[in-house]
Design brief:
The complex is a heterodimer of chains A (about 160) and B (about 325).
Chain A: E1 10-13, E2 26-31, H1 33-46, E3 49-54, E4 60-61, H2 69-83, H3 87-92, E5 105-106, H4 110-114, E6 119-122, E7 126-130, E8 133-136, E9 141-143, E10 146-149, H5 151-154
Parallel strand pairs in A: 1-10, 2-3, 2-10, 3-6, 4-5
Antiparallel strand pairs in A: 7-8, 8-9
Chain B: H1 12-21, H2 41-71, H3 75-101, H4 116-128, H5 134-159, H6 163-191, H7 195-204, H8 208-232, H9 236-252, H10 260-273, H11 278-291, E1 314-315
Helix pairs in contact in B: 1-3, 2-3, 2-4, 2-5, 2-8, 3-6, 4-8, 5-6, 5-9, 5-10, 8-11, 9-10
Classes of the chains: A alpha/beta (about 160), B mainly alpha (about 325).
C-alpha cells in the first residue's frame, strides 16, 4: 500500500543542518518540538519555505530563566499563550501534560518564526519518505528540496 | 478484522503498527483515469449536495478524533487517534478530489460551503470538543462511523459507477474497519473501568452545553442528512442496518454495556432511523427548522482547522 522509495533530494540528519545556507530551497523539518525549536529559526533565516513536521510538541520557555521546576510549565504555557494568537496553532503546539515528561527548553524564537508566512506547521504523522519528499497521514505528498531529520526521526526505521 | 474482546487484552501496539503499514496517499490514485464520464449530469446534480455533506462530516469527524487524542487513556491509543485524525482528513481530502474530478467544485477548486448544521457542529467542537469527557465522544464517534460506513458509503457506491470512486472507497473502507475496531475496543476499556469513574464521567456529560449540543447541534445535523439521503433514494433499511451494527458490535463486548452514554446514543439512533417515532415530530424536525434560521455570522470565525481541506495530492 505504502509506496516507499528513496528520497532523491538533500537529506540531513542530526546536526548536519548547522552552518548551511538554504537560500532558494524548500525544506521539511521532521523533529520533536524541542529539536524543531533549535533547527527551524536557523533554517528559516535562509530557506524559501519551511514545512515543520512536528512529531510531538514540547514546552518552551521564552529564554533561559532561573525558574524553580514547579514554575517552568506554567511560565511555558503563558509564553505559548502570548506568543501564538491563533488557537488552532496553539493547540497543536501544546504538549500533552499526561505523557510528555520532558523538561521545558528554550524557545529560540521558534514560535515567532513558525508564524512567518514562509513557515508552515504540520502536525500530521509522517509515515514515509518518497523520491519527491514527505508523505504524511492526511494523504498528501509534500515535495521539498531538502529534508532535515531531528535526532529521534533520524533513528526511525521507516524514514531511512 | 475481529472486534471481539473475548479473552485477553486487545493489542493496541499491534494495531498501531498495522495502521502505519496500511497508509495510502492521494498521490497513489490516478485522478485523471477514465470513468469520470460515468457520472452523468443527472447523477452529478443529485450527488453534489451529498458529497458536500460527506466531505464535511469526515472533516468534522477528523476534529473529533483530535479531541479524543487529548483524552486517550494510553500513549499508544493517543497515537492511534492522531493517525485516525489524519486519516479522516485524508478521506475528506479524497472525497473533495472526487468532487473535483466530477466537476462539482467551482473554478478555483474551493471546498463547498458547509451547511448551517455543520457550522454549528464546528462551533461546538471548537468551544467544547476538548473538554468533553472521553466516554461521550468515544461513544458518539463509532455510531457516526457505523452510519457513514454502513449506509452513506454503500449508497454512494451503488449510485456511482466510476472505478476511481470505487478504488478510493476500498482504501477508505479498509481504514474505517480499523477505526470501528479501535473505537469499540476503547469502549471496552472504558467500560471495564471502575464504576465510580464511569458514573462521574457520565454525570459530567449532563452539563448544559453537552445537552444543548446534543439537541441543537447533533439532532438536526443528523436528521437533515438522514432526510436528504432518504429523499435521494437511500433505502431506510440501510440506515436501520447501520444502527443495528452499532448495537451488535457494542453488545459483543463484555463491558461496553456499562457505559450509560452508549445506551443513550443507541436509543437515540433507534429513533433517528424510525421515521414514525415521535422523536421526529416533537424534537428533530422542529430543530432542523429552527436552526435553519440561525445566521452563520453569529457563530463567529471558526478555528483554522476548517481551512485544512485540500484536493491536491501533492503540495510543494
Amino acid at each position: 500500500m505504502t509506496t516507499q522509495g528513496t528520497y532523491d533530494g538533500q537529506l540531513l540528519r542530526g546536526d548536519e543542518w548547522r552552518g548551511r545556507d538554504f537560500t532558494g530551497q524548500s525544506v521539511a523539518v521532521i523533529a520533536h518540538g524541542h529539536e524543531a525549536a533549535a533547527i527551524v529559526p536557523e533554517v528559516a533565516r535562509t530557506a524559501r519555505a519551511v514545512k515543520v513536521f512536528q512529531e510531538e510538541p514540547d514546552w518552551l520557555l521564552p529564554a533561559t530563566l532561573p525558574l524553580p521546576a514547579l514554575l517552568r510549565r506554567p511560565v511555558a504555557r503563558l509564553h505559548l499563550r502570548l506568543a501564538v494568537r491563533d488557537p488552532w496553532t496553539r493547540r497543536r503546539l501544546t504538549p500533552d501534560h499526561r505523557f510528555n515528561t520532558r523538561r521545558p527548553r528554550t524557545d529560540g524564537h521558534y514560535y515567532a518564526v513558525l508564524q512567518q508566512p514562509h513557515c508552515t506547521l504540520i502536525s500530521w504523522p509522517v509515515y514515509a519518505l518518497v523520491p519527491g519528499g514527505v508523505r504524511s497521514a492526511e494523504g498528501i505528498e509534500h515535495h521539498v528540496d531538502c529534508i532535515i531529520l531531528g535526532t529521534t526521526a533520524a533513528h526511525r526505521e521507516d524514514l531511512q | 478484522m475481529s472486534t471481539s474482546t473475548s479473552k485477553g487484552a486487545f493489542d493496541f501496539d499491534q494495531m498501531l503498527q498495522t495502521i502505519k503499514d496500511k497508509q495510502w496517499s492521494l498521490a497513489d490514485i490516478d485522478w485523471g483515469a477514465p470513468g469520470a464520464e460515468l457520472v452523468t449530469d443527472e447523477v452529478r446534480a443529485k450527488m453534489k449536495p451529498f458529497m458536500a455533506d460527506l466531505v464535511w462530516i469526515e472533516h468534522v469527524g477528523a476534529r473529533g478524533f483530535a479531541s479524543l487524542a487529548k483524552k486517550a487513556p494510553t500513549p499508544t491509543i493517543k497515537r492511534i487517534y492522531e493517525y485516525f485524525h489524519a486519516e479522516e482528513q485524508k478521506h475528506a481530502n479524497a472525497e473533495l478530489a472526487l468532487m473535483k474530478r466530477w466537476g462539482m467544485l467551482d473554478e478555483d477548486g474551493n471546498p463547498p460551503e458547509p451547511n448551517i448544521n455543520v457550522k454549528l457542529a464546528i462551533k461546538v467542537l471548537d468551544d467544547y470538543g476538548d473538554t468533553l469527557p472521553l466516554t461521550g465522544l468515544a461513544t458518539l464517534i463509532p455510531l457516526l462511523e457505523c452510519a457513514l460506513d454502513g449506509a452513506l458509503v454503500k449508497f454512494l457506491l451503488d449510485e456511482v459507477h466510476d472505478p476511481v470512486c470505487h478504488e478510493v472507497f476500498r482504501h477508505i473502507n479498509s481504514d474505517e474497519a480499523r477505526h470501528i475496531t479501535v473505537d469499540f475496543q476503547v469502549l471496552e476499556l472504558i467500560g471495564a473501568g471502575p464504576l465510580h469513574k464511569l458514573l462521574i464521567e457520565s454525570l459530567a456529560l449532563l452539563q448544559p452545553q453537552v445537552i444543548i449540543g446534543l439537541i441543537v447541534v447533533f439532532t438536526p445535523l443528523i436528521n437533515k442528512m438522514r432526510d436528504n439521503i432518504v429523499a435521494m433514494g437511500l433505502p431506510e433499511q440501510k440506515l436501520y442496518n447501520a444502527v443495528k451494527r452499532f448495537a451488535t458490535i457494542g453488545s459483543r463486548g463484555a463491558h461496553t454495556a456499562r457505559i450509560p452514554a452508549y445506551h443513550v446514543l443507541k436509543a437515540q439512533a433507534a429513533m433517528v432511523v424510525d421515521r414514525t417515532s415521535p422523536y421526529h415530530r416533537l424534537l428533530a424536525d422542529p430543530m432542523v427548522k429552527l436552526t435553519s434560521f440561525v445566521p452563520a455570522r453569529v457563530l463567529g470565525k471558526p478555528q483554522a482547522w476548517v481551512d485544512e481541506l485540500t484536493h491536491e495530492p501533492i503540495a510543494s
